[in-house]
């Protein structure tokens, strides 16, 4: 399968401070040399701590901000060079689902007007057919046609996020970037929205870049996961591979922090010391070496290159071969406990699908 999106050496530096003459003298290194591919119909998740560059990467992919360096190829075209009408036409192919479902919707417009606006701007549907198209979009995300007459404040958080998803689908995009799309929702509502996204992806063949900090969420929805730290991708792998055989110390620390529904299960917790360094003055060499328990002088001096460890699994670490084997997450306990957990999960999934 050919790649829908190809990102190479993507870099974004924001000006942090200027001198008396207005020239920049220091920069925020938000994203540095990020590279990955995305196939049609695939979901790639970007995970990491707050401030690691996930949301900036998502906005760069959509050309909401311009990169400092690097290339973004969408269906073979380098979109960093597009301007004017060509860039406007690209907006139809790439859409964004925002983190806050209320702040992203115009409170003065009804849901019907919100969904009809992109249809009008891109000239996709004649005026006489827009109402029918709006009702179709609402039905696609599990809302009723009568909801088109309501305003955003009349909906719950989960319903508002469904409206945001419907707006993103209105122009029939090939790629959707979900920027922390479920982090502001209750856990039960998160499950409904995630199941909705998976269902829509299977039906419409949409590719997704899913930005999140919750590894339990991305495990449910992703085919591949890219772990970011201080502007760099440190590990990228298929979801099952990353959870069973994490290679980078930072990935292991993130996985060890995931709570599991077994209070008595033995865990190998990896506690990171210190704070995340400033992106204005990032550490030399490997950016994780200031918090890594396995760091050596080589890590402090030389930035590691991305190495392929197995099929589709790559890691940027000098010592990944020498690290002790990571213990898998204890997702199963005794047979009776596992059976109870399976029944609860099945009951919860059934309830979420009916609501």
Task: Describe the fold and architecture.
- With 355 residues, the protein is of the alpha/beta class.
- It has a single domain (1-93, 173-355), classed as Rossmann fold (3-Layer(aba) Sandwich).
- It contains 11 helices and 12 strands.
- The protein has helices spanning 54-61, 84-91, 111-121, 130-140, 157-169, 187-204, 215-221, 239-244, 249-256, 297-301, 335-354; strands at 3-18, 24-39, 43-47, 69-74, 77-78, 94-97, 175-179, 207-212, 224-229, 232-238, 307-310, 313-315.
- The strands form 2 sheets. An 8-stranded mixed beta sheet has the order 6-7-8-3-9-10-12-11, sandwiched between helices.
- Strand 11 and strand 12 (313-315) form a beta hairpin.
- Helix 3 crosses helix 4 (130-140) and helix 5 runs parallel beside helix 6 (187-204).
- It is globular, with a radius of gyration of 22 Å.
- The model is unreliable at 331-338 (pLDDT under 50).
Q: What's the N-to-C terminus distance?
A: 35 Å
Q: Tell me what portion of residues adopts beta-strand conformation.
A: 15-25%
The CATH topology comes to Rossmann fold
Radius of gyration: 22 Å
SSE layout and pairings?
Layout: E1 3-18, E2 24-39, E3 43-47, H1 54-61, E4 69-74, E5 77-78, H2 84-91, E6 94-97, H3 111-121, H4 130-140, H5 157-169, E7 175-179, H6 187-204, E8 207-212, H7 215-221, E9 224-229, E10 232-238, H8 239-244, H9 249-256, H10 297-301, E11 307-310, E12 313-315, H11 335-354
Helix pairs in contact: 3-4, 5-6
Question: Any descriptors?
Answer:
single chain, 355 residues, alpha/beta, Rossmann fold, 8-stranded mixed β-sheet, 4-stranded antiparallel β-sheet, 11 helices, 12 strands
